[in-house]
Amino acid sequence: MSKKSYLRLSWFISSAVAITVFTGADCPMDMPMGGGGGGNGSTNPRTLFVVSPNTSLLTFANPGVLNGSGVTPTTELELGIGGQIVSPLDAIVTPDGIMFVANGAGISIFENAFTAAGPRQADRIVEGTDSGISTPVDVAYDADNDVLFVSENSNGNEILVFDNVSNLAFDGDVIPNRTIGTNDNSFDAEQMRFFGGALYVVSRESVFIFENASTLDTNDFTADRLFTSPLVDEPGISIDSMGRLIVANEDDTVRIWNDASTVDGSPAPDLELTIQDAVRIDSAVIDANDRMYAADRSRNLIYTIDNVSQLASGMIQADRVNEADELQTPERLFLFEE
Question: What is the pTM of this model?
Answer without folding.
Answer: 0.88
